[in-house]
Amino acid sequence: MARIIITGASDGIGAEMARQLAQTHQSRLQLTLAARNVGNLQAVAEQCRTLGAQVLEVPTDVSEEAQCRALIDAAVQQFGGLDALINNAGVSAHALFEQVSAQDLGWYERLMRINLWGSVWCTHAALPHLKTSQGSIVAVSSLAGLIGVPGRTAYSASKFAMAGFFEALRIELKPAGVSVTTAYPGVVDTRIRYHGYNARGEAAGVSGLKEDGAMTVAECARLILDGLKRRQREVVMTGKGKLGRFIKLIAPGMVEDMALAALKDDVKPH
Questions:
Q1: Which strand ranges, in their side-by-side order, compose the sheet holding 179-184?
Q2: What is the pLDDT of residue 201?
Q3: CB-based contacts of 214: which residues, under 8 Å, 6+ apart?
Q4: What is the pLDDT of residue 267?
């Protein structure tokens, strides 16, 4: 029996991971799904139940510590333990730093509470149970957490912070037999960038990135779950992402030019 929690499970990558896990494990899966959108969360839960999984849905805002801890408590109480925590909840943002006014800068902190602190709080609450099961933690970061992307100062900061936190935690948990996998998706065909913050901290409604050749949600979810199964340290997606990470060490200026080229012309800094 696999007992797994997925945050950010009402849409996009999180919802697809839930469906793929249910398809693969069926009745052997005890799945806890968490997200803010209750209607979407219930719909995904029903899809997974249809595939044979046992599912508990817990409406959760990961920017609130108490809700993160309540999520873990509910899952453990329902299923008697925990084998894997997938920290997938997150929000995107796209704005040049100079375009953000002083009165609007507070959304940088809100984004950090969701992308970083939500993962930290959930992981802290889950840790005793994962040590008991010698289970696994997955942190869904971004290629923007490996290479700074212009127009994404807040988002990159939150994802770099995730990368550093979970890298250190991986080493701490190695003697306990708990694996930590950090996933670094590139541009994936979801609506996350459209729902993310603009300079005023409002839903952007558009994407600032060129999305030609975006990875499918199904492929991204499959790669993350394969990393979980194999207990990999990292899952760096796309050849360009792997190449950029290497080139950054020897020719950082070239990587900066590549990052600028990924922006749409109307949002590039001048």
A1: 54-59, 29-35, 2-7, 84-87, 136-140, 179-184, 234-236
A2: 79
A3: 187, 188, 189
A4: 47
Cβ contact 201:107 at 8 Å:
yes
| Secondary structure (3-state) at 150 | coil
Q: If you average pLDDT over residues 171-178, what whole number do you get?
A: 97
Active-site residue flag, 108: no
Cα–Cα distance measured from residue 69 to residue 123, given in angstroms and rounded to the nearest whole number: 9
Q: Which two tokens stand for residue 48?
A: 């997974």
| Active-site residue identified among 155, 184, 194, 197 | 155
86, 5 in Cβ contact below 8 A? Answer: yes
Which pLDDT value is given to residue 209?
A: 54
Q: pLDDT value at position 225?
A: 97
For CA atoms 49, 227, 160, 96, the dihedral sign is negative
Confidence (pLDDT) at 269: 59
Strand partners, 58: 34
Question: Rounded CA gap, 60 and 250, in Å?
Answer: 43
Cβ–Cβ < 8 Å for 83, 133 = yes
Q: Is 209 helix (H, G, I), strand (E, B) or coil?
A: strand
Distance (Å, whole) CA 181 – CA 121: 17
d(CA 92, CA 114): 10
